[in-house]
Amino acid sequence: MRHCIYPGTFDPITYGHLDVLARAAKLFDKVTVAVAESAGKAPLFPAARRVELIAANVGQWPHVSVTTFGGLLVEFCMAQKADAIIRGLRALSDFEFEFNMALMNRHLQPKLETLFVMPNEQFSYTSSTLVKQVATFGGDVAHFVPPNVAKALREAYGKG
């Protein structure tokens, strides 16, 4: 059974993330969405809430699970007996960071592969950061995130 880990902060999850997940779900027998507890960032939503928001949107894939992790991603992957890490690349600007991360992960665990997946072009400019910026000012984020996430953002920013 081929198992991949799709790691990220997912603060919040976007349709771009879900597009990458759909692609991973076609390629692997088991996919684990791994929500980074902090990843050096100060997330808007606590990790448990991010898991809830994601889990509500993965029901169409029975072989996808959602959990949290802390520490080194490669250690989490090995504990999960994963074969690969999936990372989404929206634009060329993502590549350098992701490439360096993949090389470091390969150095730490040579048996673990990293696969880069490009989301549909309609999501190439969407990021969690931009979505939060729009939501902060009460902008409509319905084209970028699932309804439960849009509602959570409105509540978090006192806009709904």
Quick overview of this protein structure:
The chain has 160 residues and is α/β, with parallel strands linked by helices. The protein has helices spanning 15-27, 47-55, 73-79, 92-108, 128-136, 147-156; strands at 3-8, 30-36, 64-69, 84-88, 113-117.
When the domains are counted, the total is: 1
Give the strand tally.
Answer: 5
Q: What name does the CATH topology carry?
A: Rossmann fold
End-to-end separation in angstroms reads 44 Å
**Proportion of residues in β-strands:** 15-25%
- CATH C-level: Alpha Beta
How would you spell out the order of helices and strands? EHEHEHEHEHH
The helical percent reads 40-55%
CA radius of gyration is 15 Å
Task: Provide mean pLDDT, rounded.
Answer: 94
State the shape.
globular
Architecture per CATH nomenclature, i.e. the level-2 architecture: 3-Layer(aba) Sandwich
Specify the biggest β-sheet: 5 strands, parallel
Largest beta sheet: strand ordering = 3-2-1-4-5
| Count of discrete alpha- or pi-helical segments spanning 4 or more residues | 6
Low-confidence stretches: none
Q: Mind telling me the CATH superfamily name? A: HUPs
Structural class assignment: alpha/beta
